[in-house]
Design goal:
This protein is mainly alpha-helical and about 190 residues long. The protein has helices at about 15-25, 30-35, 40-55, 60-75, 80-90, 95-105, 110-125, 130-140, 145-170.
């Protein structure tokens, strides 16, 4: 697997501003942000889309984490599955059996969240080309058409972070090590 050498990459001022804001807000800067910082469009685009998804997607915090973990699982992003598992546990209060089921490619114990996870994975894997029965199952689970559009927003966020992580391989921050995830061999 390719690894981009970021040694000597200059951090644009816009990226530095985002890193400084993150440090103040979180008390540390996640390694993923540091690797994304070499391109201000990537880091700014990611943080803006992430924050917008959190504020405007129409999903609860539990559903948001189910989507993020599911998309990262589909993209086999070890960093993001690990981080969002931690966030799910600590901040969003997602039951561990839900996050563990996604991480292990299993059926979720909550039927509605299972449909959400499976739809997020199917949309990621099919590049948005869902089958009609997948759309119908999603809507029958109690979600609205606007929620499908929200999943697209989440996929956009995760494409930026997952693909960046695939090429830069940030080390997992100490804070997230308790939920470290390793992708299954393909």
């Amino acid at each position: 697997m390719a690894k981009l050498n970021l040694e000597g990459v200059q951090i644009p001022q816009k990226s530095q501003d985002i890193l400084d804001h993150t440090q103040k807000q979180m008390g540390f800067v996640p390694n993923m942000y540091k690797t994304m910082a070499g391109n201000a469009a990537l880091l700014e685009g990611y943080t803006a889309a992430y924050n917008s998804f959190r504020a405007n997607s129409g999903f609860s915090s539990v559903e948001q984490e189910v989507i993020f973990i599911s998309v990262a699982y589909a993209n086999q992003c070890e960093y993001c599955v690990s981080v969002h598992s931690f966030v799910a546990d600590q901040w969003s209060k997602v039951p561990t059996e839900i996050t563990d089921a996604i991480r292990n490619g299993q059926t979720l114990p909550d039927q509605k969240l299972d449909v959400l996870s499976k739809t997020s994975i199917a949309m990621t894997n099919s590049r948005g080309n869902l089958k009609q029965e997948e759309v119908d199952r999603f809507l029958a689970a109690g979600y609205a058409p606007a929620h499908l559009l929200g999943i697209i927003a989440a996929i956009g966020v995760k494409v930026m972070s997952n693909y960046s992580n695939h090429i830069t391989h940030p080390s997992l921050d100490e804070a997230f090590l308790g939920r470290k995830w390793t992708a299954p061999a393909s």
